[in-house]
């Protein structure tokens, strides 16, 4: 299992470090993490991160896509 630092998560996702830190301390559904001591700091399992992010995946609205297709066909 691969563990990522906040900096590595930021690089992987292109999301700022402050936002990731906020995710760790959310009241509802925080991002699970491990504290690895003072020097190594916080680490998040890459597998857990991927599953956690999947919960927030935005799916395109199929109705909107259908309307766009109809409009393009005109």
Give a quick summary of the entry.
Helix content is 50%, strand content 11%.
Please explain how this structure is put together.
With 74 residues, this protein is mainly alpha-helical. It has one domain. 50% of the residues lie in helices and 11% in strands. The protein is built from four helices and three strands; from the N terminus they run E-H-H-E-E-H-H. It has helices at residues 6-13, 17-24, 46-54, 62-73; strands spanning 3-4, 34-35, 42-45. It has a three-stranded antiparallel sheet. It is elongated, with a radius of gyration of 18 Å. The termini are far apart. The model has no long low-confidence stretch (mean pLDDT 87).
Descriptors for this entry?
mainly alpha, 3 strands, 3-stranded antiparallel beta sheet, elongated, 74 residues, single chain
Q: What's the structural domain tally? A: 1
Give the terminus-to-terminus CA distance: 52 Å
**Helix/strand-derived class?**
mainly alpha
Q: What order do the helices and strands follow?
A: EHHEEHH
Count every helix, treating DSSP H or I runs of 4 or more residues as helices. Answer: 4
Question: Can you give the helix content as a percent range?
Answer: 40-55%
- In percent terms, what proportion of residues is strand? 5-15%
Question: Biggest sheet: strands, sense, closure?
Answer: 3 strands, antiparallel
**Coarse morphology:** elongated
How many beta-strand runs?
3
> Could you tell me the radius of gyration in angstroms?
18 Å
Low-confidence stretches: none
Average pLDDT for all residues: 87
Looking across the biggest beta sheet, what order are the strands in?
A: 1-3-2
